[in-house]
Amino acid sequence: MNELTNKLTSDVPLDLLRSRIRDVPDFPKPGIVFKDITPLLNDPKAFRAVIRTLAKETESLGIDRVVAIESRGFIFGSALAYELGTGLSIVRKPKKLPFRTTKIDYALEYGSDTLEMHVDSLDSRDRVLIVDDVLATGGTARATAQLVELMGAKVQALAFLLELSFLHGREKLKGYSVRSVLEY
Ligand code: AMP
């Protein structure tokens, strides 16, 4: 799926989902238009439609494990794991996880960052679905995919609530199956 225009299985139209995403200009810094998903979470019909749509799109992929990216990815990832009947593994920023971790460093526009998972959070036979709220430049999602592979598991697909297509995140995710409910 790219934009799921004709594929929404629930009775909630995409325009309604779109209306539940609020643009907040200049947050967290000047020039960034932040996509605030909290109005969508406040709306039970919209939230449920997003989770059911992503579940419908991914249920045939044989997913064993959802991997959710800190922090808004946890919200969608956990609901989706529940709906798919899979376990949930979490990817966190450095020094948040209490047990031993596997780490990956990745480049940002200025500098670099690190993501971590618990060493025992994936099985090498796991087919993984990576989940986050927003696909922007794709750097975070790509680093997560590499981290999953470093741990020996397989990335079956990546799923997002929304994609900022003008930032070309998909190009960083070439070779992976990428799904998003809404495109901007
Ligand atoms: P990126 O690595 O550039 O794809 O950025 C991905 C991460 O930053 C995701 O976890 C998003 O939640 C967050 N993010 C990036 N841009 C935005 C935006 N405009 N609005 C909301 N979240 C964003």
The total strand number stands at 9
Query: Quick check: average pLDDT?
Result: 94
Q: Biggest sheet, strands in spatial order?
A: 4-3-7-8-9
Order of helices and strands: HEEHHEHEEEEHEHE
- For this structure, the CATH topology of the domain at 61-183 is Rossmann fold
Q: Label the overall shape.
A: globular
Largest sheet: 5 strands, parallel
Strand content: 25-35%
Distance between the termini: 14 Å
The distinct bound ligands, ions and cofactors come out as:
adenosine monophosphate
CATH class of the domain at 61-183: Alpha Beta
How big is the Rg? 16 Å
In DSSP terms (H or I, runs of 4 or more residues), the helix count works out at: 6
Give the fraction of residues assigned to helices.
Answer: 25-40%
Q: How does the helix and strand content classify structurally? A: alpha/beta
Instruction: Just name the CATH architecture of the domain at 61-183.
Output: 3-Layer(aba) Sandwich
Which blocks of ≥5 consecutive residues have pLDDT under 50? Answer: none
Structure in words:
It contains six helices and nine strands; from the N terminus they run αββααβαββββαβαβ. With 184 residues, it is α/β, with parallel strands linked by helices. It has a domain at 61-183: Rossmann fold (3-Layer(aba) Sandwich), CATH 3.40.50. The strands form three sheets. A five-stranded parallel beta sheet has the order 4-3-7-8-9, with helices on both faces. Strands 1-2 form a two-stranded antiparallel sheet. Strand 8 (154-163), helix 6 and strand 9 (178-183) form a beta-alpha-beta unit. The radius of gyration is 16 Å and the shape is globular. The two termini are 14 Å apart. The relative contact order is 0.17. The protein binds adenosine monophosphate.
